[in-house]
Amino acid sequence: MAEVVNRNIEAMLSELADCERKNIFDAAEIKMILKKRTQYEYRLQRRIVKKADFLRYIQYELSVDRLRRTRCKLRRVSGGSASLDFGIVQRIHRLFRSATQKFKGDFKLWLEYIRFCQRCKSAKKMQQAVQDALKYHPYREGLWIMAAKLHFSEDNMDAARLSMMSALRVLSASEKIWVEYFRMELLHINKLRRRYLAAVSIKKGGLSSEQKEVLDGPQFACTTADKIYSAATNATDVVSFHRRFLDVYLQFNFTEKSCDAVYATLAERHSSSPEAVDILCRRPLTGEMVWSSAVRAEREVECDTLYRAAVEANPTEDMWQYYCLFWYSVVEHHQMKRSTLSLTRAVVQYFQVCQQALDKGAVSASTGHQWVEMLLMSGHGKCAVNVLDRLLVLHADDKHLQRKRLGLSVV
Q1: What is each CA distance from 214 to 181, 192, 328, in whole angstroms?
Q2: Distance CA 150, CA 102 (A)
Q3: 240 near 275, Cβ under 8 Å?
Q4: 147 contacts 130 by C-beta, under 8 angstroms
Q5: What angle do CA 12, 18, 19 make, to 5 degrees?
Q6: What is the mean pLDDT of residues 54-71?
Q7: What share of the chain is helix, strand, coil (3-state, %, to 5)?
Q8: CA quadruple 346, 348, 349, 353: dihedral positive or negative?
Q9: What is the DSSP letter of 203?
Q10: pLDDT tens-digit profile of 255-276?
Q11: Which residues contact 104 (CB under 8 A, 6 or more apart)?
Q12: Element (H, E) at 110
């Protein structure tokens, strides 16, 4: 035990002597540091070592390092600081490696080690830590995604794909892994397209026909991403899963055909689902978001026409709720943009749609609550009271509506 402790302490002496020579720590402080480190080293050599012993030692080393860095900055100490940084970082790495090997099943400890590697920008050690953690925690999807992202950041796409495929063999039902694998493929294509555009000379008129043909070619197509989407949704065919892929597709400007395929799949497989119909009805407002007020208004009318047809074909509470939520989101958009005329038009349209839903007896409690809040914000207190009375007939047990009605009675 003593031999191991002495060997570890001796390895620190040159570093501490350097600190004393540069007037970072005085002799008394170095003596105290050696004393504390010796105590911690002996604790780690006990027969039964606790995780807290490792963590306290690591925290102490980090506090000493913070003090050293602060004094170096205040006293303008220069020269040789890199070697001091390296020494203490390597010591903390050693402590974390020992701790994780001692407590392999402690996932939080592995995460702390990975975060430390991230903070000190030790890419290789972080990659090794993630790989080691996966040996003992293969069912943690976040670790697999992290491993793939590390390979991707190093432009090692083959290794990144291998990590994702290994993850899917273990966690085939994980929606998160499917979506992140899909996103990574699109990011890879986007990176290749950017590199191509940076390499070619673009004239003032834009891309030439040949350059456009190259970008539309198979080497820049999102074929692999499309296959991932198809395989994932065939295994888990739920509307919310399709929506997650569509949201990622819409983040890129070269996925128009793929988006069309998603919409076609939803229309074919889930034509009776209100959630799928909601996605299809919002389609005119997806994609390019830099529109003039007139173009935006036209697209909102297109969406409204689709919603009207949807509620006529399927006049359920869920379908009416999606219709009302659409116009509520339009109101929020114009509030953010501070477009007075468009906002007024959207609020009027929202009130009309909610009123139609109420007349049909198809207003949900949550939609009704939003409607009442909007009426009060717009200064229509009497109308809000009348709406609440009618809503309480439909949802007599809803406590939120009851409290709101009681509050308006007191006022």
Answers
A1: 25, 12, 43
A2: 25
A3: yes
A4: yes
A5: 90
A6: 89
A7: 80, 0, 20
A8: positive
A9: B
A10: 999 999 999 999 999 999 999 9
A11: 136
A12: helix 107-119
Which of 68-82, 100-114, 325-339, 389-403 is predicted least confidently?
68-82
> In this structure, what token pair is assigned to residue 329?
């989101």
Dmax (CA) of the chain: 86
pTM (2 d.p.): 0.85
Q: How many CB atoms lie within 10 A of CB 363?
A: 25
Q: Which helix (H) or strand (E) holds 351?
A: helix 340-359
- Taking the C-alpha atoms of residue 389 and residue 359, their distance in angstroms, rounded to an integer, is 13
- CA–CA dist 332, 337 (Å, integer): 9
pLDDT, tens only, 156-197: 999 999 999 999 999 999 999 999 999 999 999 999 999 988
Q: Fill in the amino acid letter for 270.
A: H
| Three-state DSSP state, 50 | coil
The number of residues in the chain equals 411
Q: What would the two tokens of residue 4 be? A: 């191991």
- Residue 115 token pair: 């975060």
**Can you tell me the distance from the alpha carbon of 5 to that of 1, in angstroms, rounded to the nearest whole number?**
6
